[in-house]
Amino acid sequence: MTVNFSVVGIFYRYAVDFTQVPGRTVLDVMNYVTKVDKNFTFTELTFQGNRIVNSLGYVHPADFTGRTGITYPQGMYQLAQSFTDPTPNPYSVWQYYLFDQNGIRQPAQADFSYTQAKVADGWSIVWRLVTICNAPTAVAKRLRSLVPPEQQDALRIS
After folding, report:
1. What predicted TM-score, i.e. pTM, was given to this entire model?
2. What torsion, rounded to 10 degrees, do the Cα atoms 127, 53, 16, 120 define?
3. In terms of pLDDT, which residue wins out, 97 or 109?
4. How far apart are CA 78 and CA 7, in angstroms?
5. Which residues make Cβ contacts (< 8 Å) with residue 9, sequence separation at least 6?
6. Domains, in order of start, for the chain
7. Is 12:126 a contact under the CB 8 Å cutoff?
8. pLDDT by residue (tens digit) across 36-94?
9. What is the pLDDT of residues 135-144, one digit of tens each?
10. Spatial separation of the C-alpha atoms in residues 30 and 24, rounded to whole Å
């Protein structure tokens, strides 16, 4: 019985023996992985009463090849969110996705914190660091100079 756990961006993937996990939430799986794989780490913080993942990291003990064939050097690969108060623009946050044993995304789980979201045998957990713009960015004004004047209104670049 296995749950596949992966983190995009730090090149991490681990097949979890789900029978050994004490609990059935995403957090339970993450805590288990930190116990069985000392090279994997994550940090949390509390923001407005909610626990959120702050960073995820993995120490690659040797050079490795990514799925596209690029070779990467050994070392610590770690990414952290930038969601703070006040909120910067843009900001990054960790999001998890759950897929069932048939590879079908389980959208209902997105309504739950990783501390509560239930995982079933055969599922996959995927973490991604996503960037969100909460207002127009300064780069939009610079892009205006690259777009012909007759197309600027159609693109609504502000």
Report:
1. 0.83
2. -80
3. 97
4. 10
5. 77, 79, 128, 129
6. 2-155 (2.170.130.30)
7. no
8. 999 999 999 998 888 999 999 999 999 999 989 999 999 999 999 988 777 888 889 99
9. 887 665 666 6
10. 10
Compute φ and ψ for 143, nearest 5 degrees.
-65, -30
Q: ∠28-31-34 over CA atoms, to 5°?
A: 150
Of 57, 63, 64, give the one whose Cα is nearest residue 30: 57
What are the two backbone dihedrals, phi and then psi, of residue 122, each rounded to the nearest 5 degrees? 90, -5
CA atoms within 13 A on the CB side of 101: 5
Beta strands in the chain (DSSP E): 2-7, 12-17, 40-47, 50-60, 64-65, 71-72, 75-80, 91-99, 124-132
Q: Which two tokens stand for residue 88?
A: 């910067």
> Which two three-digit tokens encode residue 135?
């207002």
